[in-house]
Design goal:
Blueprint (H helix, E strand, L loop, with lengths): L1 H7 L1 H6 L2 H12 L14 H11 L8 H11 L5 H14 L6 H13 L3 H14 L6 H13 L3 H13 L6 H14 L3 H7 L4 H7 L1
Helix pairs in contact: 1-4, 3-5, 5-7, 6-8, 7-9, 9-10, 9-11, 11-13
Length: 205
């Protein structure tokens, strides 16, 4: 009700600062609203309107706002659709991600198998924030593709990591090797890609 009340009051929009917005989001994201035995749910459309409209008043949302919104969306019954909706908006708005909120969003998109949104987000980051393509972010992407048995996509990410001179972690190797063990021999991967990183591969095996 608080969100709906604020949204109906146009004058209140102009008075809400970024700090106030973040405080509201923190309060809402800390609530335990998801109860399958009731009709209670977060109105994510109102959430998004709240954040995106305030951008035009006192500086709008920031990284903390998105961090809290990511948590709050997880409490919604329509979380898969709403994580995709948020990703698409942030891409359109050229949002400057932090490594934390990017990793969190990718993790949730992978969990809910929202691969079109993942592809769009990956392309945006590669073009606009390539410095965020860290080993940790690659871990989340490869883990997601592994969960959906999309090993070809995971292999493409390994090639991209090689181009960026990033050394895969044991976590990445473990996902790749587990998948390859089901579908193909990974000896070629071992021989051509892991030179200089035998220790990590040994840990993964």
């Amino acid at each position: 009700m608080l969100i709906k009340t604020i949204l109906k009051n146009n004058n209140r929009k102009a008075e809400l600062s970024v700090d106030e917005l973040n405080g509201l989001l923190i309060s809402i994201s800390s609530l335990k609203l998801l109860n399958h035995n009731t009709a209670h749910d977060i109105n994510i459309d109102a959430f998004l309107e709240l954040i995106f409209n305030y951008k035009y008043y006192k500086g709008g949302y920031n990284s903390l706002s998105i961090d809290q919104l990511l948590i709050a969306i997880g409490k919604c019954k329509q979380a898969p659709v709403n994580y995709t909706k948020l990703a698409n908006y942030l891409i359109t708005d050229k949002f400057l991600f932090s490594e934390y909120n990017l990793q969190y969003l990718i993790c949730k998109l992978c969990f809910f198998k929202q691969y079109q949104a993942i592809n769009s987000l990956s392309e945006y980051i590669a073009n606009d924030q390539p410095e965020l393509l860290t080993v940790r972010i690659f871990e989340e992407l490869i883990k997601g593709y592994h969960m959906d048995n999309r090993l070809d996509s995971a292999e493409e990410l390994l090639i991209l990591m090689k181009e960026k001179n990033l050394i895969p972690s044991p976590v990445i190797y473990s996902y790749i090797i587990t998948g390859y063990g089901k579908r193909k021999d990974y000896s070629k991967l071992y021989g051509t890609y892991s030179s200089g990183n035998q220790a990590a591969l040994s840990v993964a095996r």
